[in-house]
Amino acid sequence: MPSVNLRHSVRAIVLDDENRVLLCRHAIPQSAGGAVWATAGGQIEPGETPLAALRRELHEEVGLVLRTDPPHVWHQEVVGPGYAAGHDGVINDYFLVRTAKFTPRGSLSDEQLAAENIRGLKWWYLQEVASYAGVDLFSPRDLATPLTALITSRLPARPVRLGL
What we know:
Structural class: alpha/beta
Distance between the termini: 23 Å
Number of strands: 8
Order of helices and strands: EEEHEEHEHEHE
Number of helices: 4
Helix content: 10-25%
Largest sheet: 8 strands, mixed
Radius of gyration: 15 Å
Shape: globular
Strand content: 25-35%
């Protein structure tokens, strides 16, 4: 059986004091105008720990500096074409980051963000995610369900496994 080449990434579920979640709008180059709203984060570089990657990505994309190690709350594995260029799929490990309200502005320039296909940042209320009827997608697709559990329940004892 051939080995599967998965891109391992870390993502931050950034929740402010109003339980709004910060999402990045990723334009999908191979699609006709579609986009995916996903939490901040990205690929773990060789030699980098997951938490070091999370700290780097948050600083670069949204300008947030982590002072503590956030809890690992979700784990996602998706195998299939089109989820990460040059890979057979992705592994995303999600960490919960609670913070005060802030205006997101990372260390990357708009051009550098665009090179990573990030075309915008937005704070979303849970109800906005749950009732969204536009053409863009969320990652994970049913973001509202695990996000609801995360906001209304205690932290999971071990990371919740997510589908696409």
